[in-house]
Specification:
2 copies of one chain form a homodimer.
Chain A: E1 4-8, H1 13-24, E2 28-35, H2 42-53, E3 57-62, H3 85-90, H4 101-116, E4 120-122, H5 138-151, H6 153-156, E5 161-163, H7 171-181, H8 203-215
Parallel strand pairs in A: 1-2, 1-4, 2-3, 4-5
Helix pairs in contact in A: 1-7, 7-8
Chain lengths: 223, 223
Amino acid sequence: MKPKAVILLSGGLDSAVALYIAKKKGYDCHCLVFDYGQRHRIEIERAGFIAKRARAKLHVLKISLPWKGSSLTDKRGTIPSGRTIREIKNGGIPSTYVPSRNTIFLSMAGSLAEAIRARAIFIGAHCEDSSGYPDCRKDYLETFRKVINLGTRAGIDNTLTLKFPLIDKSKAGIIRVGKRLGVPFELTWSCYKGGKTPCHRCDSCILRAKGFREAGIKDPLLN
Amino acid sequence: MKPKAVILLSGGLDSAVALYIAKKKGYDCHCLVFDYGQRHRIEIERAGFIAKRARAKLHVLKISLPWKGSSLTDKRGTIPSGRTIREIKNGGIPSTYVPSRNTIFLSMAGSLAEAIRARAIFIGAHCEDSSGYPDCRKDYLETFRKVINLGTRAGIDNTLTLKFPLIDKSKAGIIRVGKRLGVPFELTWSCYKGGKTPCHRCDSCILRAKGFREAGIKDPLLN
């Protein structure tokens, strides 16, 4: 029987690549998707398509955080638009940052992993070419790995660990890996806004476009 | 204006003492209570009474974890009963362990803390005289403190930290501190079972009784 893994799947490009890496490594993949009131709810639908394509199981978990604090969930906020790569890189933590999001997601993933006796949790976070979110950095993820090692039964038994295979990669590097693994990029969704087509102006659209350009691959979403 | 703190309140004795410590230290206290399908739902009601008595704010958050794995939430499981203190201490992680519970609670507390700009999060966990839960140990909590320092905007800005003032105390020591601070022990609830009166046989009842006995204080719940 294949060992199980929990994959944090967002419907975006990075987590889809993380899923295909886990699949390639021979895991029985259980995708965990959160419905947390994000504007870009199309992500949830896309995550379902991606999981289905990968023949992975899908768990959708609704979390209601009754407090606000991010332009990604609070419609009164403004999503940064039209920034240059330099502005994105030097702009510090953007308004789209959702307080403790990855910590909440990882803690739930840890709980699911223990319940189904998974051997690994995969997260597609990366710090190169990212938007400056503190909870996507390597030292943060290494510390959270220790939290799992110390704070769960499975971690103590050495039967569960956290994996972040994309952490040191650029967006272009991630796209190249995904291409090699057959990731269905046409199903992924990166835009932060809630529209039917990508806005091409939010940080996420801009970083995606740069990644495909640098990888020398055409983004199938643009066809 | 007083600095704000988020207090993880369970309705039990330890977290009530943590709340009164935070109050004594001059914080504007925001209590966070979780409704996660626990058998002893009376805890949630008691948490409300305790917060009111302490003139603290109360946030109740419902979390639905669609997976099982603990006798505390899964009615098919059996709660250990009638164990001796030695059996409790040497029995390893008990069946009442809820996978990743404190990690989930702390991650939500971190999110609330950032949203309301709190300066501290208080958790009443302790390892002396506890039931062997991995997520109540000092090294676990020290590591989670690092997760907050690294993974949140407020942590990076050095304006938020995690406090666990009871970690090295025995149950008797916690009860003595609570007595001094005027904690309303009669409002607290420790029993894991869902009954109207404490069962006196679950691990939590047994550890509570031992604590009061060793502190030389009478448990007002027993009147």
